[in-house]
Amino acid sequence: MRLRQWSVARQMLALQIIVVTVTVAAGSAMGFFQARDLVAADATAVTRAVAVSVAGSPSVLAALADPDPSAALQPYAERVRAETKVDFITIMSPDGIRYTHPRPAEIGRRYLGTIAPAREGRTVSETYTGTLGPSIRTVTPVRDAEGRVRALVSAGITVEKISDRLREQVGAAGIAALLGLAAGTAGTYLAGRRLRRHTHGLGPTELGRMYDYHEAILHAVREGLLLVDSRGALTLCNDGARELLALPPDAEGRQVTALGLPPSLTEQLASGGDRTDEIHLTGDRVLLVSVAAVRAGARSLGTVVTLRDHTELQAVTGQLDAERGFAEALRSAAHESANRLHTVITLVELGRPEQAVAFATEELRAAQELTDRVVAAVREPVLAALLLGKSAQAGERGVELSISQESELDDVGLDAHDLVAILGNLIDNAVEAAMSGTPPARVTVHLGASEGSCLIRVADSGRGLHPAAVTEAYQRGWTTKGSGRGLGLSLVAQAVRRLGGTIEVTGDPGAVFTVRLPLPERSTS
């Protein structure tokens, strides 16, 4: 239970130390057995070479012809043994009676070991326990000119000497193994410290719980959430962000500049700076975007981006602005009516009733003429109310807003909110442009429907737009008034795209915005 409560870093450290220890131990064991086999093979090769060399020496064959072969062979064998550093060289008769031995007392006694293969003319190697203890030895025949076996030669190295050599190699290998274990443990400890820093000392249970919470939150919140690293790559996006930005399935891991987002939004995501509640437009949404930079000391880790959908709120705000405009128009009309009524009353009091009647009739005729013209030309009630309100607003600002004589528009069946957004923003921008132009300031509105499309045209008497600024005019933040948010034309372009229409700008001087919207097919049943 205590082991489960350990942090991930501590568990990984313990596991890696065990792995390193087992690996080093297994490697050392394999090295030991390989070294033992190599030393044994080397000893066998040495004894074979020495035995064959002595057996082929002419002096050995010549000494065998003497009545006392040991007198000549014993010094020779000891000299060769000292030079080759083997433990013994025994020259014996074919029956195994020794002529030489490192211990002179053993001369004349029978050789201990296998000699039958050598008597038959073959060379044989084996490990056998003789007078000097266990040894690796090789026995080979001594032949005369006719090929007969005249004697046998045995050369050997004791196992004790082989073990001494093996211990030297194992000692060096053990030191290397200890160094490797120490290096592995140190590396494991450093890796554990790094892992502990990244996991904040949490255990597997806590990390698993945090991951579950992380996934639940990401999929539950409606707001969009993006994580962008310091190189400008998208590392995480939740379901809300995928829906709001229409991101592809493979968006994570790609650069934000390659996601096909609007230029203003792409620039903000890639900037890495802090931004709060900036409005950005996508194809069919109005988004409120906030960006917060994440840092670890002086090192930038990237940015956290939150997205909130303000499309419906923006539509309601636009409608509220229109209602506020209507209220202001009514207030202005009430104020003007009060002034006119005072004028009429004063004329009556002054004894000029004819002038009072003429004044009241003329004012009523002008107001009724505008209302009749709008109502007769535009039978879409929302647009008719909008035009009356905008006309009063424009009049207050010294701009004459008129409806073209050719205007005629029935209920076209298009979304009223989008129509209000398009016409209202176009008129507001036209009024602003007309006020900055040469007097008299005029705005002309034409509405119509033909060939399956709704036509909205708004012209002003302002300075117009430079051709190079036409495309830029539909981007968020563009304005002719210096500083400003410049959202109106962006909302117009968005609503036009949403309805599947087109918008173009012409005119010189002044600007003429022409919008064409396809009409929905009406049922004939």
From TrEMBL:
Keywords: ATP-binding, Cell membrane, Kinase, Membrane, Nucleotide-binding, Phosphoprotein, Transferase, Transmembrane, Transmembrane helix, Two-component regulatory system. It comes from Acrocarpospora corrugata. GO terms for molecular function: ATP binding; phosphorelay sensor kinase activity. It is an enzyme of class 2 (transferase). Its EC number is 2.7.13.3. It catalyses: ATP + protein L-histidine = ADP + protein N-phospho-L-histidine. SMART domains: HATPase_c. Residues 304-521 form the Histidine kinase domain. This is histidine kinase. Pfam families: HATPase_c (PF02518), sCache_3_2 (PF17203). It is found in: Cell membrane. The chain crosses the membrane at residues 12-33, 170-191. GO terms for cellular component: plasma membrane. It is a multi-pass membrane protein. SUPFAM superfamilies: ATPase domain of HSP90 chaperone/DNA topoisomerase II/histidine kinase, PYP-like sensor domain (PAS domain), Sensory domain-like. Its main location: membrane. PANTHER family: SENSOR HISTIDINE KINASE DCUS (PTHR43547:SF10), TWO-COMPONENT HISTIDINE KINASE (PTHR43547). It comes from the Bacteria.
